Amino acid sequence: MLKRFIRYYKPHTKMLALDMLASLLISIIGMVYPIVTREMLNVYIPEKQYTTIVISGIIVLALYVLRMFMRYFVQYYGHIIGVKMQSQMRIDLFTHLEKLPFKFYDNNETGRIMTRITSDLFEVCELAHHGPENLLISSVMIIFSFTYLMTINAWLTLIIFTCVPILVCVSMKLRKAMKQAFDDRRKSNATINAAIESSITGIRVTKAYTNAERESEKFKKGDEQFVDASRRAYSAMARFHSSTTFVVDVFNVFILIAGGLFLYAGKINFGDYSTFIVSVNLFISPVNTLIGFMEQYQNGVSGFKRFVEIMDEEPEAEAPDAIELTEVEGVIDFKDVTYSYDTTKEVLHNVDLHIEKGRKLALVGPSGGGKTTLCHLLPNFYKLGEENGSILIDGKDIRSLTLESLRKNIGIVQQDVFLFVGSIRDNILYGRPDATDEEVYEAARRANIHDYIMTLENGYDTEIGERGVKLSGGQKQRLSIARVFLKDPAILILDEATSALDNTTEVLIQQSLDELCKGRTTLVVAHRLSTIRNADEIAVVMDGRIAERGTHEELMAAEGTYKSLYSLQFRENDIFE
After folding, report:
1. Beta carbons within 8 Å of 148's beta carbon, 6+ residues apart
2. pLDDT tens per residue, range 536-566
3. DSSP state, residue 317
4. Tell me, what DSSP letter sits at residue 387?
5. Does residue 81 register a pLDDT over 70?
6. CA-to-CA distance for 463 and 272, rounded, in angstroms?
7. Pairing state between β 332-339 and 410-414
8. What's residue 577's pLDDT?
9. Alpha helix locations (H) across 265-358?
10. For the chain, what percentages of helix, strand and coil (3-state, to nearest 5) are there?
11. What is the pLDDT of residue 500?
């Protein structure tokens, strides 16, 4: 994991080297004051070298001015390095997320993923900047101050240095507990973010069902978990700091007792003793910095570990020798397809389907029968194992095709329309970002929404709000249809595209869909059987199998499952009308 972290430093090697050089100069300048103090107490003052005293003071002041600029450089450019590393990690993570399969998102909540992109990587950024700086400055200061203290009085220095192994042992023992506690706290923070994301996204449902109190209770429960995890984390941190600080305090006690005895015994003069008191702080201070660094290290490592967990998720794979799908006719074959989302239950069982170019096949049947799964398998959203049959487009196995070329040739209109924050134009252009304005307008006309758009004050530049909240269900559906018109795919999937609409809107949308289907091989999942009577063929999917297949007239004449479903639906309609 360390190698992967260091890799992000490579683009910033020169700036990092300058940052470390500046940090080194800061450490060296820090040693000047005790050296000058010793000379003043032992030489300049006793010998009344007043000019030298003033010149030494000016030199120290000049060095402090230089150190001020060095500190500015380290603080500013060091943080810039950290931010750029964080930015690259964020880009890498987001890019990787875009490549992950549907299964990953089935098992991971959006709020938890967002936490890894934001707060986790911020901790990594802080470690990236302060880590090398603190380690270098502290290490150099410890070595330099120890060496200098040895020149003042070796025995007194060794007595004090005996506290260091005790400090290391205490730190190592408490560090593990602190690491686990902060890992738990980070997971709890992700739980809160997931709850917030879910509640805000579903705020309209919450208000409609007057369940604000219930959502608050759910949030409080997650918040209580976070508070409890934070309590344990800060308890571990408090034990760590109080214990290590106590050891450091022992340093001062040793200095007080041992230094006083040495001074009393004449083994050290007053000037050297005073210098030793000043210099020992140069030794203790970086030790304290390293102790504080342990907390930052734990936070940064925990954040990077969670970053790596996602980066290690396997992206969608395609065959090494995958070929482009070009000049698509649209002939589709499902051959002996068997599929399950997990090992507990098969969703599809030995399904065989053949759809001719430009034909419309409707899939009907009870919920959970496998209709939507067939639609998800065709664009290779879920991977079909080699032993689970095959899906062919124009005779080419979809597993042998590049994912991009496959999905470019398939258009999807779903019941739950997803629109992005932005303008109407932006959302239609999602179908083909390089399209001209005239092509966008033509797509909107064919989707029967152009006239409505032109009645808006800002026309195609009208902002639609989050997920198109400012539009009606029918308007959102037409925008999604316009998006597919612009994409102009050879194959079309309509997954219950009108089931969430009222009857009047459904009729209007159906006209747009009929226009969209012309000349395209179409796979339709329908809940309202009245909408698929004109399909070239209908397949009844039950319990993962094709139970019946034929035209509407043929299936009605067969008096099987389809006729029962059709009769039941129309009888229900009569009851409610």
Report:
1. 31, 34, 35, 279, 282
2. 899 999 988 999 999 989 888 988 888 888 8
3. P
4. G
5. yes
6. 74
7. unpaired
8. 41
9. 270-311
10. 70, 10, 20
11. 53
* pLDDT > 90 fraction of the chain, expressed in percent and rounded: 15
Report angle CA 354, 359, 362 to the nearest 5 degrees. 75
DSSP state of 340: -
The residues that bridge with 487 in the sheet, in sequence order, are none
Q: Residue 29: its pLDDT value, please?
A: 86
Beta bridge partners of 541: 546
Confidence (pLDDT) at 406: 92
Q: What is d(CA 285, CA 293) in angstroms, rounded to the nearest whole number?
A: 12
pLDDT tens per residue across span 215-235: 777 778 777 877 887 787 778
CA distance 387 to 53: 88
Tokens of residue 171, six digits: 């730190």
Taking the CA atoms of the chain, what radius of gyration do you get in angstroms? Answer: 35
Digit-coded pLDDT (tens) for 409-433: 999 888 777 888 788 999 899 888 8
Q: Using DSSP, state whether 267 is helix, strand or coil.
A: coil
Cα dihedral 129→130→132→135 (10° resolution): 180
Within the chain, how many helices (H) and strands (E) appear? 21, 10
> How far, in Å, CA of 6 to CA of 422, rounded?
38
Residue listed under structure tokens 């597993």: 399
pLDDT for the residue numbered 575: 38
| pTM metric for this prediction | 0.72
3-state secondary structure at position 324: coil
Mean pLDDT of the chain: 82
CA distance 313 to 99: 10
**Amino acid at the residue 512:** S
Which helix (DSSP H) or strand (DSSP E) does residue 412 occupy? Answer: strand 410-414
Beta strand 521-525 with 396-397: parallel, antiparallel or unpaired? unpaired
Q: Which residues contact 151 (CB under 8 A, 6 or more apart)?
A: none
Structure tokens at 486: 């612009």
Residue 8 carries which side chain, given as an amino acid letter? Answer: Y
Q: Residues 6 or more apart from 23 whose CB is under 8 A from it?
A: 70, 74, 133, 136, 137
Q: In this structure, how many other beta carbons lie within 10 angstroms of the beta carbon of residue 567?
A: 13
Mean pLDDT of 444-463: 89
CA distance 555 to 96: 47
At 353 the pLDDT is 92
